[in-house]
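Researcher: Here's a chain I'd like modeled. Treat it as a single chain, no partners, no ligands.
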Amino acid sequence: MGSVREGQYKSPRALLPTGTSRGGRAHPPTPLARALDALLEATVVGSFSRVGYLARRAAEGWDDPPRADGKVVVVTGASSGIGGAVALALGRLGAEVWVLGRDAGRTEGVAEAVRSGGGRAEASVVDVADGSSAEAFAERYRAVHDRLDGLVHCAGALLGGYEVSGDGFEMTVATHVLGPYRLTWHLAPLLESTGAAAIVTVSSGGMYTERFDIGRLEMGPERYDGVRAYARAKRAQVVLAHEWWRRWSSRGVASYAMHPGWVDTPGLASGLPFFRLGPLLRRPEEGADTAVWLVTGAARSLDLVEGAALAPTGDGFWHDRHPRGEYYLPWTRPKVELDVQGRKLWDWCATRTGVGSDDDQ
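Model: Modeled as a single isolated chain. Structure tokens:
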């Protein structure tokens, strides 16, 4: 990718025709749909709530994501909520889904639901915050497959108090940053072998409130703030997603981060019990839609728009099938170039997990 500043880095994505989806391909939305999307985005509540999802889907005429027949996709945090919805949707689209979760019963339950719907699924108990658990899964997967078409990072938790992972790291960072980094690194050769694989990281709109700062990423027990720790980790996820793209796009690996909006999930109910929006909360399958759309390759497809051919894209921060800006608040903007942030975060993760190095370009 080279060294670029944030404004330059986003400009190609601003030209993408990511409105109406026909057969998984992107077509330009109408002027009315563009205006509606801009209005929703400006209100935040309208954009992140169920209102935004329903309005955009209707105005832009969304079709189902592309078929995924013959593809194999790993989904973490898939025992419930958004991850479970991603797994079910991919199964209906024809993918073989590896359902990863910490609870054996719920994880197998989602896998069985995929099978009951005519799909193929394997359940695997994995705690992404635990290094040995992630490595053991990667070994198990490699024993069965020599390729991987998609990896969707949905595992997450918003903690009320300070906790430490089995590896000795603050649990929010271990779950949202170190865990995805480590699992992706172990599976990277299989992603590269497909020539057109995708990594999708389910981040959060909460990341808009925090600036990326490697020195403040891992909070200590003193004055621990679970909401702030979560937002910082979600911001770091976006930086990491860009870094995967920078390092591996030349090998055919796309990497996206997205935020699902405000979704009615068990995690939201336990982590933010005061966040009561009732019918304004999205259903899990609605929050999962963009992640499924991305991992099945919709944003990478070539298409003709007003007579001009557009190159496929494999990067960006997305919401409701649109690439979005990454900064709403001026004090959250980076003070260094994006690829510098990514390199720093990569080195930070490599030092703590013991896998990967800056030589892996």
